[in-house]
Amino acid sequence: MDVSAVLPRRLAGYVRRHPELLQTLAAFGVKLFGAVISFVFNFLIARHFGASGTGGYGLALTTATVGGTFALFGLDYILLRTVAGDLKVGAQAQARGIVRTIGRGVAGIAFGIALLLGIAGVPLLLRLLAQTDNVLVLYYSALAVLPFAMTRLASAALRGAGSVVLSQWVDGQIATMLALGCLIVMILVVPEAGVDTLFLCFVGSQLIAAVYAWWRYRRLSRDWPRATAMPLAPLLGQGWKVSFVVLSMMMADWLVLLILGAHYSVLEIGQFRTAVQIAALVNIIVVTFDSVAGPRIAAAHRIGETGGVYRAWRQATVIMTVMAAPLLGLCLAVPAWILHFFGPEFVAGATALQILAAGQLINVLTGPAGSILIMTGRENWSMRISCAALVLLALLGFTLVPAYGIVGAALTASGVTVFRKLVACWVIVRR
Question: Pick from 59, 162, 249, 304: most CB atoms within 10 A?
């Protein structure tokens, strides 16, 4: 038997039976490109503004992300699974109606949170951290809440409608590319400009991405029937549980930064955040496969196809583990060599990078377990896991971070991640 002739035919047949693989690879290509752009962006920030500027920018970005996630109230996940399920059974009017209702609701919530953050949240944060540097950039974080939330919501609508690759472009890639262009211009033309100017450029980039994303959704859905009226209150009843889950994961990163900043300087925040950004490149693989598997899981669950849920989980886990292996190997073997590219002052985060990489290894080995719980309507289990994870976060954070600095912060972040994923897998298998 001629293996060279048979193998391509079998491979082509496998791809025809699993068309989602091509979509996954395309989405991963977009994410990989975005990861490269993000890496260059963070690299230039570190080299131009130093660890202190990196810490200030990272704190503002994390604050804006938390505020935008609060505004979403978990409704982006409700929108994703509902639209995917509605379109699976041909209910396009209902899909359009839920996007319209959730879009208006999130816009109002985001505007209110932005005002609250600017008036009360940022001053409280500055007092808590005794922060005197990079004050203006923290105030600019309030401006990013609305465009961040609306971009993320448009991305969920596009994913639910089947445009997974396009959703990957609008969910971070466009804004990062525009912000990188602004940073290069700043370095070449106005090198004296501060990190606050850069963050203001990022806000504008995020706003452009939001407008473009919703324009593309409008074109995608133009042939759908007139929207069915959908009340917001029941959706909020579902969304707050998902919101709690998502925010608890995000708050873990934010609270670790806050605890670190309360006991150490902005220098340590910058060193730790750089290590986090490198390890998070692995998480890009996880997020990519989540974005592809999520709609498949929701659609399979909508028609009662349990086997489809498990196939999506198994395929995603195997492929993401293979893809993440080279980067994880480098982070575990030569962390100081990687960090030295950012500057000598970042090498102190080598041990932290190894610990974070170990946590990401468990993250990829367990696959999209968290998405399965949410996409199949198991928010109650996700919420229980999140409550336990917050308790663990408090125990580890307030004991390890003050004592061991960025190493303690890495142990806290990885410990919470490992706990979440392992318990989620246990729930899926048992339930």
Answer: 59
Nearest of 198, 259, 304 to residue 413 by alpha carbon: 259
DSSP classification of residue 120: I
pTM of the shown model: 0.72
Q: Which residue has the tokens 């752009």?
A: 37
What 3 state SS string does 23-59 have? HHHHHHHHHHHHHHHHHHHHHHHHHHHHHHHHHHHHH
Q: Are residues 164 and 269 in the same domain?
A: no
Query: Is residue 29 assigned to a domain?
Result: no
Residue 275 sits at the vertex; the CA angle it makes with 272 and 281, to the nearest 5 degrees, is: 140
Q: Does position 431 have pLDDT exceeding 50, yes or no?
A: yes
Instruction: Please tell me the distance from the alpha carbon of residue 388 to that of residue 426, in angstroms, as a whole number.
Output: 15
Mean pLDDT of the chain: 84
Query: Distance between CA atoms of 190 and 168, rounded to whole angstroms?
Result: 32
Report the C-alpha gap between 106 and 114 in whole angstroms.
12
- Spatial separation of the C-alpha atoms in residues 200 and 211, rounded to whole Å: 17
Identify whether residues 194 and 88 lie together within a single domain: yes
Residue 387 lies in a domain: yes
The domain boundary residue, chosen from 180, 212, 230: 230
Same domain for 197 and 279?
no
